[in-house]
C-alpha cells in the first residue's frame, strides 16, 4: 500500500440529529461524535451529504461548530467540514467559518446549479475560491459526487487543479461509485493527493491500490470494521452486503434508520425536508438485515 502521502485514515461522514421541529439536536450530536472518534474514526466530517449539509444554513453551522468545540473535540486534528454551495460567496463564507474554527480540512463540492459546465469553468471557480481565501487556504479536498451534484470532476480537471495548487489541494473524495473512474484517479494521483473512497464496497481494493482512506457514512455504524479495511486493506463481505442493501433506499434516511436501530433512539429517524424518513417497514427490515448479516459473518 502506498505511503508516499500521509494516510488520511477514516472520517465519519456524520449524520446530523434533528428534533421534530427541524432544529439541530446538539445534545445528541456531540455524544455521537465522541462515539465515532472512540470507536475507530480518525476524524468526523460535518456538513457533508450524509449530514444533510446543504440543508443547514450558516446559523445552524455556527451552532454545530460551537457545540463541537465546546465538547473538547480538537478541530485541527479531528474535524473536516463540508463546503457545498453554488455561489462563490456562500462557499467562501462556509470555508472561512470552518477555518476560523481551525478545521482539519475542507471538503469542497463543485458549484452544482448549472449543469453541463466545462472543465475551464470549474477550474475558474475553484481557482477563485482558493485565491480569495488567500493565505488561509489549506487542506482542500475536492468532492466528486456526480450522483448528487450532477457536476462531475474529470480526472483532467483534478490533475490541473492539483498542479496549480499543489500545497493547498491535498485530497479528493471519490463518491461516484464508478470503479473504472476510481482506478484512473488512483493511477493519476496516488503520489500527489490523498484519494478517499466514498463507496465502501471497493474501499479495500482502493486501499491496496494506493487509496489513503475514506469519508464514510457507514462509519456512523461500524467504524471499527472500516478502520481494519483502511489500515490493512482487508476485504469485508458483510459490509459489502450492508452497503448493497442500504443503496436500495435513499441513502441518508437509510443510514439514519440504522443509527436509530443501533442506538434504540427513534429521534435519529428525523431528516430535513425535502428528504423524508424511510417507512417503518423498511426501517425494521434494514435493522433486521444489519443484525443478521453481521451475526452470520461473525459466526
From TrEMBL:
SUPFAM superfamilies from the UniProt entry: Aldolase
EC number(s) per entry: 4.1.3.3, 4.2.1.41, 4.3.3.7
Enzyme class: lyase
GO molecular function: 4-hydroxy-tetrahydrodipicolinate synthase activity; 5-dehydro-4-deoxyglucarate dehydratase activity; N-acetylneuraminate lyase activity
Keywords: Lyase
Taxonomy, superkingdom: Bacteria
InterPro entries reported for this sequence: Aldolase_TIM, DapA-like
CDD domains linked to this entry: DHDPS-like
SMART domains according to UniProt: DHDPS
PANTHER family: BLR3884 PROTEIN, DIHYDRODIPICOLINATE SYNTHASE
Family: Belongs to the DapA family.
UniProt name for this protein: Dihydrodipicolinate synthase family protein
Amino acid at each position: 500500500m502506498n505511503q508516499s502521502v500521509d494516510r488520511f485514515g477514516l472520517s465519519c461522514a456524520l449524520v446530523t440529529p434533528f428534533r421534530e421541529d427541524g432544529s439541530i439536536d446538539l445534545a445528541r450530536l456531540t455524544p455521537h461524535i465522541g462515539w465515532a472518534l472512540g470507536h475507530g474514526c480518525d476524524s468526523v466530517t460535518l456538513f457533508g451529504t450524509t449530514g444533510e449539509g446543504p440543508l443547514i444554513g450558516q446559523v445552524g453551522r455556527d451552532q454545530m461548530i460551537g457545540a463541537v468545540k465546546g465538547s473538547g473535540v480538537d478541530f485541527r486534528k479531528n474535524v473536516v467540514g463540508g463546503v457545498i454551495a453554488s455561489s462563490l460567496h456562500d462557499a467562501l463564507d462556509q470555508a472561512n467559518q470552518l477555518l476560523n474554527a481551525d478545521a482539519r480540512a475542507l471538503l469542497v463540492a463543485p458549484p452544482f446549479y448549472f449543469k453541463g459546465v466545462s472543465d475551464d469553468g470549474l477550474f475558474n471557480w475553484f481557482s477563485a475560491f482558493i485565491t480569495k481565501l488567500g493565505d488561509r487556504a489549506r487542506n482542500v479536498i475536492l468532492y466528486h459526487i456526480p450522483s448528487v451534484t450532477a457536476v462531475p470532476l474529470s480526472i483532467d480537471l483534478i490533475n490541473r487543479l492539483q498542479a496549480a495548487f499543489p500545497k493547498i489541494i491535498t485530497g479528493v473524495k471519490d463518491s461516484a461509485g464508478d470503479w473504472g473512474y476510481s482506478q484512473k484517479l488512483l493511477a493519476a494521483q496516488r503520489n500527489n493527493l490523498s484519494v478517499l473512497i466514498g463507496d465502501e464496497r471497493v474501499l479495500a481494493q482502493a486501499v491496496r491500490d494506493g487509496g489513503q482512506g475514506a469519508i464514510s457514512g457507514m462509519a456512523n455504524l461500524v467504524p471499527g470494521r472500516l478502520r481494519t479495511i483502511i489500515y490493512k486493506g482487508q476485504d469485508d463481505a458483510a459490509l459489502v452486503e450492508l452497503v448493497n442493501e442500504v443503496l436500495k433506499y435513499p441513502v441518508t434516511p437509510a443510514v439514519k434508520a440504522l443509527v436509530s436501530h443501533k442506538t434504540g433512539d427513534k429521534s435519529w429517524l428525523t431528516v430535513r425536508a425535502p428528504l423524508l424518513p424511510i417507512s417503518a417497514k423498511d426501517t425494521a427490515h434494514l435493522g433486521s438485515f444489519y443484525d443478521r448479516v453481521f451475526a452470520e459473518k461473525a459466526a
